[in-house]
Amino acid sequence: MNVHRAIAPPKAGPLQRAGDWLMRHRTTIQAMQWTVVGVYALLLAVPLFLPLPGRTATFWNDFTRFAQLAFWGVWWPFVILATALVGRAWCGLFCPEGALSEFASRHGRGGAIPRWVQWPGWPTAAFALTTLYGQMTSVYQYPKPAALILGGSTAAAVAVGYAYGRGKRVWCRYLCPVGGVFALLAKLAPLHFRSDPFLWKLSQERGDKPGPVDCAPLVPLRTMRGAGDCHMCGRCSGFRGAITLSWRSPNHEIVHVAGATPKPAETVLILAGLMGLAMGAFHWSASPWLVAAKQAVATWLVDLGATWPLTATLPWWLLTNYPERNDVLTLVDGALLVGYLVAAALGMGLALAAALALSVRALGRFEARRFHHLAQTLVPLAGAGLYLGLSAMTVTQLRADGILIPHVSAARALFLGLAVAWSAWLGWRVTGLYAGTRTARAAAIACLLPAWALPAAGWVLFFWVW
Ligand code: SF4
């Protein structure tokens, strides 16, 4: 048992005791992680050896359909929601990739972390590439691309763990394709490990000599002010009597912490990644715009006499190719799909950036720090979009299996409305930090209106118009 606290505080509340429990029960947590590793491996590997599900297959009589629902219909939406509620507990307590990477790092060669690995743009770039590639290969529908993308990511996590760091989660800290998304959502969590600088200093002055903390994602404990990088593993609970699991306002980190250090990669992830690319990834299969573009391109190619791109296909690992399921994307389909997603990312990203830039300008002279801070106010709306898109797959899959969830439409409308209201409230709070006058604040808020309306309109189109 590793107890950090030199002088225990007199009364530990239930939350603090919960944090301490995590710190003391590493073996239980590891057993849980290895169980998840086993379940993850089964869900990923077994469908590879089974025939594709027939038309009448359901999740209770076909393992592939079960794995599909488990991965994309339950696991993903659950993790997104859980991260916004309790921080990155999934990463620290359950994630099979993190557990394997850390295990590999404990038994690896322990190399220094190269500078290229520490490039802050990796989580955004990796999210964009996996989203694009996942749509090209229909990762939600078929076991082979799921195994390739998820299994490939796990293999890379193990390789990075083996190569760099001593028992640390270098992959999770710098490279994980969803690490950036989780770091954003965790900023909304009302639960976090709080590091109190005053108590820390007091402990130093007392001459406390606590043992080192094995913080796998390399969070600087003394200066930790936000929850974005913390994996909620609890290993630092009680350290120097200064770190405790605590409640906070879900607005606190966005309003008071996120503006201190501008993170352009996070801004790109929010504006173009989550609100543009991810929305496009959920939209494209229902989009009448894509159908119209395909007809126009087909007509143009026929007129040119070059019809081969309308029938040419690629292997399944480049572009969806399942003729036995009547599900094949031609070169034209693939090019238009990629074009649609890139256009969604650029179009939405640039439109939102313009709204934010105008809002910053309305507050005074343009400052990049304010721009990035305002972008953070859109995190509730961006996270809600991701959740709505993923849960739409849950609803569709369950409906295909004869299970109807009541009041889905009303619940979606309410959820979207609350997300817009939350982002608007954060926008109000953050503009209040910078506005010199009421008029400037009102003008800044007016400029933000399109930044709330555009993403909301995108979801309205998807759920209620198309
Ligand atoms: S700061 Fe590090 S050690 Fe503490 S809970 Fe977070 S991840 Fe674990």
From TrEMBL:
Signal peptide: none annotated. Keywords: Membrane, Transmembrane, Transmembrane helix. Residues 71-109, 155-189 form the 4Fe-4S ferredoxin-type domain. The chain crosses the membrane at residues 31-50, 70-95, 116-134, 146-164, 171-193, 268-286, 298-318, 338-359, 371-390, 410-430, 442-465. This is 4Fe-4S binding protein. The lineage of its organism: Bacteria, Pseudomonadati, Pseudomonadota, Alphaproteobacteria, Hyphomicrobiales.
